[in-house]
Fold this sequence. Notes:
Number of strands: 11
Shape: elongated
Order of helices and strands: HHHHHHHEEHHHEHEEHEHEHEEEEH
Region (Disordered): 130-190
Keywords: Hydrolase, Membrane, Transmembrane, Transmembrane helix
Strand content: 5-15%
EC number: 3.4.-.-
Domain Tail specific protease: 285-477
Amino acid sequence: MLERIFVWLLRLYPAAFQQVFGAEAARLVRDRLRDERGFAARLRLCWDLLTDFAISVPREFRYAQPSLAGAPTQPMRGPVFAVLEGKPPTPTSLALAGLFAIAFFTGVGYLMGHGGGHLMLRSLSMRPERQLSGPGFAPERAPQQPGMGVEAANSSLGSDRTIASPAQQQADAYAAGEPWKRDAKTATPAANGQPALVEMDTAYTRWVVAEIAGNLKYHYFDRASAGQLAESMQSRVTAGAYDSVPVDQTLAKLLTRQLRASTGDMHLEVVYDAGILPHPVAEPTAGVPEPYRRAMAASHCTIEQVETLPHNVGYIKLNSFPDPEVCGASLTSAMSSLNHSSAVIFDLRDNLGGFPVGVMFVSNYLFNRPEMIFNPREAVSSQSWTKPVAGNLLADKPVYVLTSHKTISGAEQFAYNLKMLKRATIIGETTAGATHSAVFHRIDDHFGVAIPEVKVANPYGKPDWEGVGVEPDIQVPAADALTVAEKLAAQR
């Protein structure tokens, strides 16, 4: 509620001030609402805002350049303040505005704790955040990036905020913080019982595309291509190319096709969720989250089974590649128990990925010299090479890896590298085909974009497993993979 009132009151300022400082002002208020809790803190915030309005509104009109600012031509939802630059408001107007603000700030105090729920302010102050989707690689810890709010995105794209078309005027007002709600034009019942998809207003469409373009320009590893992509998208926006596209999965798929066709990069993807996309969860600055530690303790670090099969064949079933900081001792114990095996079978048929450092930890046991383990999400560094394990006897033993269509992400990384290095025989089904090599940036409740931020050269000179999976050396149904591996190991 407090954010909404603040956005309304911003309309008292000259239009030029709103365009330059409106988004940043809204962001500052949202940050204070997030950090300053309690009645006393909120009362102090109200007093600061009222004082600032009383001092800065007359000053801004005094220094504003005379120009005519017409009211938007489209119907608006909610209160509208029409202001002519160069003509300061009368004392009566200022007094009424002050009384209006005091009445609202003091009369709805108990609602102030819920000020962060307004969709427009949340979108206005949204910073591109890192989030990984799917059950694959664990979230990485990365430094905070500067925000790419609406103003920054539009500025970086060179957008023209004086376009006279009604649709563009709506889009500009939307980006400047106008307290509109999405205008559902059509809604049809979904045949599968899911919530009906709705076609949203043109201003929202243009805002979504501009935000995606801004994130691409800021985050995509190929800066030259990113600039061209952003300009191309902005040109289409100006030409109204997306105005008739339903703002749902249809728009997301169209943008994805265009981005991939322009770059040839299959990791670029625009995502739409008819529900609400989850917010990225802030990670602790150090250490491992306690819930993860408890989950690993309860599942024995996802090491389901370790045993010695007939003919002295070692067998280990791993359902993830856990963080060695938590599970290093368990992984060491499991691998050491297989040390005297004549061959080793890694069962990854139910493995849903995990940490790249966990993949490297297990890979260390399979080589007696440094070998590069390719990771499509990280640039090559000294940590990309295996390190021999003291006392290990498995480096020259035959290795078999069992896969299924559910084998994904980090498990695919393990299988892919061993196959390319000719260190293992892959048996079973083609894997899921998910590298998770892009970083997910949330645009708002419904849209996000996956952007590769690091360009990693594949040392094998071939495409990775994104979209195609790791093809086994011996293709059999997953249920039969262990039997085939045991027979091959016995023959060797």
